[in-house]
């Protein structure tokens, strides 16, 4: 699966072995947990931003401090990442002039009095019938889901031979915080929001899920398969990690 939001992050390291409740190193404060089952030290950034330092029994404060200092860069990176993920994109207002994404481009909304369908993209505008306004969000989601199904199915067709898969088909639905997942019976699932992404990023989401038909986990073999199909996948993956969160909020 491809998830833009990571709940917790962990970093483990090997170390030798005295307890304490908390440890402060510069501006970082850690809850310290000693456990006899543990052989290594580990830092965890909890969902609420709390830093937890887990260690085997008997590890000295000096050793804990050294471990934290050695991992400082990683900790700051994780905290910055968490801040970024918690920055919520503002909810859309269904008023004339509001911009709505479609394959990476923003199109302004225009309210119209008369039109054959409730919502359509015409002459570079999303045209929404005024009487459809109370259900605007549903109309948008339906529109996106239909476009997503067609567009993503076509991309899957582009890659299936090359990536040696024969998926049962494409299903588009609300996958919560995930962009895609591959399910039972070789079906590929995608979030309707994938169609809001720039084409080359949505394409990466497709290649990522197809590769999962061979390799369920993110092993080196999985990434090798992705790279063979899409040599510049890393840039697209980075873009998604950094900007994917901004795509939320319709
Ligand atoms: Zn995945």
Descriptive notes:
The chain is an alpha/beta fold and 250 residues long. The chain has 2 domains: 78 residues, no CATH class; 117 residues, Metalloproteases ("zincins"), catalytic domain (Zincin-like, 2-Layer Sandwich). The chain is 35% helix and 25% strand. It is built from 6 helices and 12 strands. Strands 1-4-5-3-2 form a 5-stranded mixed beta sheet, covered by helices on one side. Helix 4 crosses helix 5. It is globular, with a radius of gyration of 23 Å. About 6% of the residues have low confidence. Zinc ion binds next to helix 4.
Top keywords for this entry?
globular, 35% helix, alpha/beta, five-stranded mixed β-sheet, four-stranded mixed β-sheet, Zincin-like
Question: The CATH topology of the largest domain is what?
Answer: Zincin-like
Number of strands: 12
What are the segments in which pLDDT stays under 50 over at least 5 consecutive residues? 5-9, 12-20
Q: Could you name the CATH class of the largest domain?
A: Alpha Beta
Fraction of residues in helices? Answer: 25-40%
């Amino acid at each position: 699966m491809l998830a833009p939001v990571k709940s917790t992050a962990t970093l483990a390291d090997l170390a030798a072995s005295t307890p304490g409740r908390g440890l402060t190193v510069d501006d970082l404060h850690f809850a310290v947990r000693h456990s006899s089952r543990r052989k290594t030290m580990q830092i965890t950034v909890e969902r609420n931003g709390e830093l937890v330092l887990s260690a085997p029994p008997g590890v000295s404060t000096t050793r804990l401090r050294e471990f934290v200092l050695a991992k400082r860069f990683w900790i700051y990176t994780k905290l910055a990442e968490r801040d970024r993920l918690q920055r919520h994109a503002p909810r859309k207002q269904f008023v004339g002039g509001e911009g709505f994404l479609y394959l990476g481009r923003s199109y302004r909304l225009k309210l119209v009095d008369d039109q054959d369908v409730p919502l359509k993209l015409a002459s570079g505008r999303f045209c929404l019938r005024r009487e459809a306004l109370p259900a605007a969000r549903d109309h948008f989601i339906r529109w996106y889901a239909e476009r997503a199904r067609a567009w993503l199915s076509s991309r899957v067709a582009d890659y299936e031979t090359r990536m040696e898969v024969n998926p049962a088909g494409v299903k588009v639905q609300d996958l919560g915080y995930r962009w895609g997942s591959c399910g039972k019976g070789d079906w590929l699932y995608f979030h309707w929001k994938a169609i809001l992404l720039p084409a080359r990023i949505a394409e990466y989401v497709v290649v990522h899920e197809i590769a999962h038909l061979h390799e369920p986990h993110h092993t080196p073999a999985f990434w090798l398969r992705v790279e063979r199909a899409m040599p510049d996948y890393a840039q697209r993956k980075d873009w998604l990690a950094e900007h994917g969160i901004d795509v939320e909020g319709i």
